[in-house]
Amino acid sequence: MTVHVDSASSDSDDGNYIISVKGAPDIILLFCSTILLEGEVKPINDFHLECFRRDVQDFLLKGHTVIGYCDMEMPKSNFPSNFEFREDSIPLKGLRFLGMISIHDPVRPSSVEAVRNFRNAGIKVSEAEFLNLTTL
């Protein structure tokens, strides 16, 4: 997970910070209570969750990497001017789910030979997949 903070306005104390978060979709969704659909913010409901599960599973079964995105605007006045934004210093709840990006990154032909060489040397090779569909 990565957290980004941008100022929605100039250096003045007025306006909002925009907290943007990206990461594994199943984790990102845990932070969200709303979803952006066709330009409107709506509460996340069971229908949205089912569509989300289906789409993520479809992408993963095709061998894609999936990244989820969400954000939240927070008034600058809620933070001292020297506030240090870190993953553990901002509330990660009530965010707005923006969507997902699916990246097709197929296995390179040279990887097959490399895996074969590792196995022949007695090294166990496995692919790591960090998205846990059971948490959706």
TrEMBL record:
One of its GO terms (molecular function) is nucleotide binding. It comes from the Eukaryota. Pfam families: Cation_ATPase (PF13246). GO terms for cellular component: plasma membrane. The keyword Cell membrane applies. Keywords: Cell membrane, Membrane. GO terms for biological process: intracellular potassium ion homeostasis; intracellular sodium ion homeostasis; potassium ion import across plasma membrane; proton transmembrane transport; sodium ion export across plasma membrane. The keyword Plastid does not apply. It is found in: Cell membrane. It is a multi-pass membrane protein. InterPro entries: ATPase_P-typ_cyto_dom_N (IPR023299), Cation_transp_ATPase_P-type (IPR050510), HAD_sf (IPR023214). PANTHER family: CATION TRANSPORTING ATPASE, SODIUM/POTASSIUM-TRANSPORTING ATPASE SUBUNIT ALPHA. This is Uncharacterized protein. The lineage of its organism: Eukaryota, Metazoa, Ecdysozoa, Arthropoda, Chelicerata.
